[in-house]
User: Fold this.
Amino acid sequence: MVKTIVKSTLLEAGVLTEEGDEARELYNQSRFGAIQGKKVNLSLFDALFLLQKGRITIHGKSGRRMNETQFLRKARKMTANFDTRYAVFADLRKRGYIVKTALKFGADFRVYDRGIKPGEDHARWVVYPVAETSSLTWHEFAAKNRVAHSTKKRLLIGVVDDEGDVSYWEIKWLRP
Assistant:
């Protein structure tokens, strides 16, 4: 089966696909983005992942098609620590997890266990991507842990090294 490439447009806060069954299929199969009428609203992370997979094209407001380098330049301006966050997003997606944004939870991402789709069950983790060279204070760490605990999710720290490889640290509450 030949997969159709979906045309999309870069907006202020994300990427919106054109109308069509192919766009909705991106959502239905792997839960990329969110349904918005007959279109799919993609996060910048979803959009770059799909662009790299050859599943979408991205066009600017002028209608001109953007290449990956042009899109990355814009995404980096729109989102702090884009490269670190994208490294974790892409790594988790490649491992078969569904990754959604988690701004309302006070985290970067929420991650669903393999085989679970949003709406079928709750996310298992809230994820904070950090660069290997960055540091967290105990106060910042405790705040992240409290957010995870209060949302009944596990805290997952994705540590990205200089080569772009990701290591994960899962933090759980224990009662002695």
Summary: The mean pLDDT is 92. The chain has two domains: 6-78, 82-171. The domain at 6-78 is CATH 3.40.1170.20 (MutS, DNA mismatch repair protein, domain I).
